[in-house]
Amino acid sequence: MSDQAIITVTLNPSIDAPIALEELRLGGTNRCLSSKLEPGGKGINASRVITRLRGETLACGLAGGSTGALLRQCLNDELVPHAFEQTETQTRLDVMIYERGVERRTRLLEAGAPVTQHELETLRYRVRKIAPGRVVVLGGSLPPGASPATYHDFVTALNICDARCIVDASGEALAQVLAAHPTLIKPNEEEAGQVIGRAISSDEEVIEAAYELQRLGARSVVISRAEKGAIGVDELGGLWKVEVPQVAVRSTIGAGDSMVGGIALGLSRGETFAQALALGAAAGTASIAAADRELCRLQDVEEILARVNVKRITLRMQAEV
Fold it and tell me: What phi and psi, each to the nearest 5 degrees, are found at residue 21?
C-alpha cells in the first residue's frame, strides 16, 4: 500500500439489497424484475469509487456475522482492499425497493447492530497506525452504542498523525465533529441546513451556510446540490462554484459517496482544491446517470469531467469573513 492510499472508515456498513419491480402491491405477491446484493455504507462506497478510478484505498470499519462475511466477499469480488474489525453482532441488511411503473423508491433501513466502546477503540487504534499523512474518509451513520462525538474523537486522534480527514456525516455527528477541525466536510443542502438551524436553497443561502460551517470549525466545506452542482469554500476562504452537465437521472443512491471518493482521490494526488472538486463532481454526476443504480465507471467520469466547470467566485461577503 503506497503513501497515497486513501483510508475509508465505515462504522455502520451494510449489505444492500436493491429490488426492482413494476409496482409494489402491499399485502400481495410481488414478482421482482431484478435483485442483487452489494456492499453499502458511505466510506465503503467511496473506496469502491476510488478503486474504479484506479486509485489506491483501504476500506476499514466494523463488520460481523454472516452478513459481515458477505460484505468482505463482495469487496473481494470488486478488488477493493479492506481491513474490518470483527464485531460480536451482525452487520445490518438494508432493502431498497424501486417501482419502475410509478418511479417511486422505498428504503427499509436497519439501525445497525450495537457496537461496544472496545470495538470502536480497537478500530480507532488500527486506523491511526496506518493513517499518518494520508487522506482518511469517515462517513455514514453511527451504529447503536456509538456516541454522537465518535467522529470528533476519530478526527482528533487522526489530527495528531497529520492525516487529512474528510467527513461525510449528518445530524449531531456532523455538528460535533466540527470542533475537531476536519480537513473537509461534504454535507448536502439539507444536512448543512440541519446543522446551522435553517433551510437553505439559493446560491446565496448555500454560500452563507458554507462560511458558517467553516467558522464552526471545518477547514474546508463542500455543499453538494445534486443537479445544481456544488459550492465549496477552501481553507483560505476561497469560494468556488461547481457546475455539472445535465444528465438523465437514473438514481441518486451513492452519488454523494461517489463525490467524496473523487474529492479524496484528487487531494491524495496533490491536486488543487478546484481540481479535486471537479473530479468529485464528475464522479457524483456519473453515478447519477449510471444504469441499474450502479456507482460510476471510469470512462463515464472521464467524459463528464471534461464538461465540469469549477469557477472562483469573488463576493463582498468573502472579504468580511
Answer: -150, 170
pLDDT digits (tens, 9 = 90+) for 39-83: 999 999 999 999 999 999 999 999 999 999 999 999 999 999 999
Give this prediction's pTM. 0.93
d(CA 270, CA 265): 9
Q: Indicate which residues carry an active-site annotation.
A: 257
Residue 168 forms part of a structural domain: yes
| Three-point CA angle 79, 297, 303, nearest 5° | 145
Range of the domain at 225: 6-23+34-320
Cα 55 off chain centre by: 16
Q: Is residue 86 part of a domain?
A: yes
We report the CATH number of the domain holding residue 315 as: 3.40.1190.20
Tell me how many domains the chain contains. 1
pLDDT digits (tens, 9 = 90+) for 148-184: 999 999 999 999 999 999 999 999 999 999 999 999 9
Task: Count Cα atoms within 13 angstroms, Cβ side, for 186.
Answer: 31
Mean predicted confidence (pLDDT) in 91-118? 89
- 1 within a domain of the structure (yes/no): no
Neighbour-count burial of 37, counting CB atoms closer than 10 A to its CB (0-12 exposed, 13-18 middle, 19+ buried): middle
H helix and E strand count, the chain: 11, 15
Confidence of residue 321 (pLDDT cuts 50, 70, 90): very low
